[in-house]
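Hey, can you fold this one?
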Amino acid sequence: MPFYNDPEFAELHRAQVAALTTRGKSVFLAKITGVIPKGMNLPAPPIETREFDNITTAKQWLLGEALTNLPTPVNNVEVFENGQSVWREWHWSHDALKSKNELWWDAKDPGRKEREAVDKERKQKIEAGLIPNSQLSLKEQFEKANPRWLGPYFAWLPTSTLDAGTIWMTQYWVRATLGLKYKNKGWFPDND
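Sure. Predicted structure:
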């Protein structure tokens, strides 16, 4: 057993203390995940990660450089500390992410805001009864006749409904106010 004043022991002790403090230091992994917009031929959504020694610089990188350089709209940003998620924001929950997506879509599709305004105005005219049924599309006729339902949708993949269990290759409807899926729209009257 070496003595405490032994230089060899002192060197070993210093090395062990340095190893413990290095190992105990937290590493923050910042991760940004994009989406695959319709029409873009990407095999997977773009993901970029980088390690930082503190959470503040990780967040600054995610909401600054990483967000600016992401080639697609963003889905979410997340910071992990030693493998555990410690901070996460989604595309709809943070103003910087919302702005990134709006700017991206404005550049990709410059006339979309005008089309949305025209669609909103048309919908208001339909609800007010200013456009006759003969001038409505089938979707608009369905929406006017069934105000409490969305659809019909087609279940290309197995889809769980309340009245028929799991359906596939079948039409189903969604209850507008509840978001619940039904195969048979007759479960609720439209004027309840």
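The beta strands are 28-34, 47-52, 74-81, 84-90, 149-154, 159-161, 165-167, 171-175, 181-182. Let me know if you want another pass with a different chain boundary.
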